[in-house]
Structure formats: C-alpha cells, structure tokens
C-alpha cells in the first residue's frame, strides 16, 4: 500500500481558516493544540502555504517549554522574569517562520513574529528591522503596535510606548494587555 501524500490546497484551506479562527477568537491551550493538529494536517496537503507555516511558528512560540504568554504583547521585563531567554527554545518557531518567509517574503505576520523572537532574545536592533519589514508590508498587521510598544517601553521611550499602546487600544478596545501595560507605563513614569 502506497503512503504517497496528495497535495490538495483546496482541502487544506478550510483547515487553515478554522485554525486561524481558533487562535484568534479563543486561544486557550487546548484550542491551540487543536489548531496545531489542523495546521499539521493542512501542511501535509499544502506544504508551500506560507500562512500555515506562520501559524505553526506562532503556535511553536506559545507552546514551547516555558512558552511566552498567549497575549499579543507583554513587556519583556515581565517575560524575562517568567521565561529567561534561551535561543534553543525558539529554534522550532524560528524554523517555521523562516520557511514562511522563504515561501512568501511578503508574509507580514511571519516577519513580525520573527522580530518578536529577536526582541525576546534582547536582540533589539534585529527586532526593529523585522518590525520595520512587517510595518512596510502591512501597517495594520495584528500585534505590531503591541510589539513596537513593548520595545519602546524597555528602551525607556515611554511617550512612544504610550502612543503605540493607545493605538493598539484604538484598533482593539478589548485589548486587556494594552490596558495593563499602560498602567505599568504610568507607574514607570511616576504616576503620570
């Protein structure tokens, strides 16, 4: 019996859509595992799909040992205390994201999450380059404002961080992480 894999992007498309919905709308650990299962099936059917690779990279970030928080933005000083940077832990996520970029250099989310890895490893110059690429490709890419605000915050550029957190809130008024980070920023600025 042959175990030849049939490439079928049309069959993969609904799996990708459902995985995206699960990650964006729900995001609990059990749901993330369900989304990963769907994406791995979709990857077998459509191995050259950059979005599948990007979402697998995103999932690898949040499910790695001591994975980063599910929230789309958390100030690095908080993450460093909870999850010390170890480059080898980011390798699987980075591999998916690099494959996504190889398949489609215009994949803004892959560029953004690759920048996030650089940021979490305290490679801020590299992170800034990746964020700039993501911004150039899609200025409205989800998470961009939060990640840029995080970088401004840890760099002591509080006015820029405040502007970016507020822009993230304007785009998503339910963004509780942006609200929490604005409070942290207020404290860091001495209550102003």
Concise structural overview:
This protein has helices at 9-26, 29-45, 50-63, 76-82, 87-103, 108-120, 124-137, 144-154, 158-171, 176-188.
Quaternary organization: single chain
Cα-atom Rg, whole angstroms? 17 Å
First and last CA, distance: 70 Å
Helical content stands at: over 70%
Q: How many strands in all?
A: 0
DSSP summary: helix tally = 10
What does this structure look like?
With 192 residues, the chain is an all-alpha fold. It has 10 helices and no strands. Helix 5 packs antiparallel against helix 6. The radius of gyration is 17 Å and the shape is elongated. The mean pLDDT is 85.
Keywords:
192 residues; elongated; mainly alpha
Question: Which helices and strands, and how do they pair?
Answer:
Elements: H1 9-26, H2 29-45, H3 50-63, H4 76-82, H5 87-103, H6 108-120, H7 124-137, H8 144-154, H9 158-171, H10 176-188
């Amino acid at each position: 019996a042959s175990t030849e894999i049939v490439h079928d992007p049309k069959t993969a498309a609904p799996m990708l859509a459902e995985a995206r919905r699960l990650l964006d709308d729900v995001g609990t650990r059990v749901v993330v595992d369900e989304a990963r299962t769907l994406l791995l099936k979709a990857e077998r059917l459509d191995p050259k799909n950059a979005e599948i690779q990007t979402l697998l990279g995103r999932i690898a970030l949040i499910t790695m040992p001591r994975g980063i928080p599910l929230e789309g933005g958390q100030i690095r000083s908080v993450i460093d205390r909870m999850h010390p940077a170890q480059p080898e832990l980011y390798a699987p996520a980075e591999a998916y994201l690099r494959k996504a970029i190889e398949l489609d250099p215009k994949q803004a989310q892959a560029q953004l999450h690759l920048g996030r890895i650089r940021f979490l490893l305290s490679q801020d110059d590299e992170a800034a380059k990746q964020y700039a690429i993501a911004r150039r490709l899609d200025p409205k890419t989800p998470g961009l404002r939060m990640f840029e605000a995080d970088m401004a915050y840890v760099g002591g550029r509080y006015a820029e961080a405040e502007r970016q957190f507020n822009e993230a809130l304007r785009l998503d008024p339910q963004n509780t992480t942006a609200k929490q980070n604005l409070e942290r920023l207020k404290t860091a600025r001495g209550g102003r």
